[in-house]
């Protein structure tokens, strides 16, 4: 239900069971593997709508090898009713189901001038989503854009132009907080549904944004 977004993950269910049975919850300690000074990142991140996006975490990972997922990963996703795509995308979905926070990953080299801008869409802008649907955007929809155009519908679905493929070598891992009302309105207006939107609409935890990103980084 809308008041229990914490149940939309393995960790959330485990926490509830621990409370009911009065047992201790075991939480993995995921440590930051490398600290990078923000000004040294070759990617510029701008949040033009802070009410729509109060928090945005970006991790740059270079020299990845994109291919089929190991059998344990694809099998676990299959049991959850999630189609295996590739190892990088599958890791973000795995982390979503484990910790409850949606992630998105961009092919860094497909972002024009390596810039990420969180803003409202401009009237008449279009985007082709990863499921090959072209959508006409309106100013009430929150998007992730590069210097030229929208590359994702914030909290709902990524765009085809920056999706991760077997040719991808460098990625930008996004973990953010998006306004639940904006996500719901945008999804409904565009006729889209996704595991990410289902969670963002109900509200996600700020602390989980960092932890889920760290877990994905570790697995990648």
What descriptors fit this protein?
5-stranded mixed sheet, 30% helix, 10 strands, 220 residues, globular, 20% strand, alpha+beta
Please, could you describe this protein's structure?
With 220 residues, the protein is of the alpha+beta class. 30% of the residues lie in helices and 20% in strands. It contains six helices and ten strands. The strands form three sheets. A five-stranded mixed beta sheet has the order 1-4-7-8-9. The chain is globular and about 55 Å long. The model has no long low-confidence stretch (mean pLDDT 93).
Total strands: 10
Q: What's the SSE pattern?
A: HEEHHEEEEEEEEHHH
**Percentage of residues assigned to helices:** 25-40%
Which class best fits the helix and strand makeup?
Answer: alpha+beta
Number of helices: 6
